[in-house]
Amino acid sequence: MKRKTARAAFIKSLPVFAGYIVLGIGFGVLLAKAGYGIWWALIMSLTMYAGTMQYVAVSLLSGGASFITTAVTALLVQARHLFYGISMIEKYKGAGIKKFYLAFALTDETYSLLCDGKHPEGTDLHLFQFLLSLFNQSYWIMGCLLGNFIGTNIEFNSAGIEFAMTAIFVTVFVEQWKSTKNHVPAIIGVLSTAVCFAVFGSENFLVPSMICITLLLFILRKPLEKKEEVNGND
Predict the structure, then answer these.
(1) Domain assignment present for 51
(2) Span 128-162, pLDDT tens digits
(3) Which residue among 53, 86, 194, 202 has the highest number of C-beta atoms inside a 10 angstrom radius?
(4) Residues 133, 137, 141, CA angle at the centre, nearest 5°?
(5) Is the CB of residue 120 less than 8 Å from the CB of residue 89?
(6) Cα–Cα distance, 14 to 132 (Å, whole number)
(7) 129 and 86 in one domain?
(8) Distance between the two ends of the chain, CA-based, in angstroms?
């Protein structure tokens, strides 16, 4: 069962592999250009493991930001993970000591692969969740180290490389859209974000949009679950 679970988790993680390698390289290059070596890339990827925040952290480090500024920025940028964690409490129930790593490793992409709570038949659920999360972080670490090495040893124009973050979000969204018949949650997410962006502006829309999405999904939970059951029966 362990071998089958590991194989299933690896296959499930492959869409993230390409994205994390490219995205990690982008971060590693930016970090190197800011004057921070490979040990910084390794430690940040092991302990922070937050794509968006790691990109932002490059500017904070090079700009000499204060502790308070860094803490507030981290809270605003990563606030969505609070909602991810709350929604995964039941799905991680019974995971034992693994749940601590599962909570830590719950990135946007990992969440999108695990949020349905399903796993291949004949595999261990919590081991599957753990290994998939671990595979994803290993891809991120490899990308960051490779990017830092490239940025340190090869001279080139790195302008626009941060767009990799946007590209991977789009890829995950399309993958999730294609893999499910119920598109209501995705539509709620897009519309809520668009409205909050228009109302609060580009600097302040993230937290309000996550609150709106969470409230709407909570209110519509039962109808959505019924629709999911109907689609499953079909």
Answers:
(1) yes
(2) 999 999 999 999 999 999 999 998 888 766 666 66
(3) 53
(4) 170
(5) no
(6) 10
(7) yes
(8) 29
Q: What are phi and psi of 216, to 5 degrees?
A: -65, -40
Same domain, 37 and 81: yes
Residues with Cβ within 8 Å of residue 139, at least 6 apart in sequence:
13, 16, 17, 20, 21, 24
Q: 42, 171 in Cβ contact below 8 A?
A: no
66's torsion region: left (phi>0), alpha (psi -120 to 50) or beta? beta
Length of the chain: 234
Residue that wins the pLDDT comparison between 11 and 217: 11
- CA distances to 122, 144, 156, 182, 183 from 176, rounded to whole Å, are 23, 25, 35, 10, 9
105, 49 Cβ separation under 8 angstroms? yes
Residue 64's pLDDT band, with cuts at 50, 70 and 90, is confident
> Which structural domain, as residue segments, surrounds residue 196?
180-234
What are the start-end ranges of the H helices in 106-183? 108-114, 125-153, 164-179
Q: Which two tokens stand for residue 205?
A: 């829309």
- Note whether residue 69 is domain-resident: yes
Residue 168 resides in a domain: no
Of 144, 146, 142, nearest to 134 by C-alpha is: 142
Rounded CA separation 73/57 (Å): 9
Q: Residues 18, 61: one domain?
A: yes
How far apart, in whole angstroms, are the C-alpha atoms of residue 92 and residue 117?
9
* Predicted model pTM: 0.68
